Amino acid sequence: MARLVAQAVGKDGEAPIIVENRPGAAGMIAADHVARAKPDGKTYFVGSNAPLVVNQALYAKMNYDPAKDFVPVSGMAKSPLLLVVRPDLPAQDVKSLVALGRQAPGKLTMGSAGTGNITYLAGEYAVSKLGFKVTHVPYQGSAPAIVGLMGGSTDMMFDALPSSMTQAQAGKIRPFAVLDDKRFAGLPEVPTAAELGYSGIEASAWFGLVAPAGTPPAIVERMNRGVNQALAQPELQRKLTGIGAVPMPGGPAVFAAFVQAERDRWLPVARDLGLKAQ
């Protein structure tokens, strides 16, 4: 997703953007690198749920302050979570999954993309709201978690669409519900959780651009314009939809308000559930 947006921004006359992967520690290695970078408009961080929000509740110590060490630039895209189960699980829908989970609390296993990932937090929150318990199985990313689900190593998962949609379309995993306020165009036959009577568990994996604190407002505004012009391109919109994402346009203040709303929602949830990094 970051590469698609970067390429589109470059087409609008901006200097070429290099996307550099710095994986590890639920996004905190990359976040810390950018937090310490010179605020000259040359280095940005593609932040997401974990490094900008959730990790504050899960980790006792962080080397950066997600609220103070960055300035919001722009939202980029979001991907609603999808409740999926292994192909041979003896449940046909959310209702029967809930019944199965209540029969033997903790017997069902739930994979996730990692402890600091929204797939973990939203999954734990959702099953608590649905009224049953699971055993969490963290993986190093969504791809291996989906492989584990397809192979039967886990029973269920709340995964972001980019990594689960293709396998769901191919019948290799079974989708039960989209955790969004409307159905996703790529899986029009899959109902929302609210449609099934399970409201209040909506959740998305999202991505947005932030810069080191102290970056001049003029630079932030210029990059924001570039990103939003890219997100308005029909070609990029089609590509994002194709990987299970929808654009998140808006000015820096819009993205700042969105991130704050996510903190207000998810940090108390993580603390109430007693979730900690494993």
TrEMBL record:
It comes from the Bacteria. Pfam families: TctC. Belongs to the UPF0065 (bug) family. This is Tripartite tricarboxylate transporter substrate binding protein. It comes from Achromobacter pulmonis.
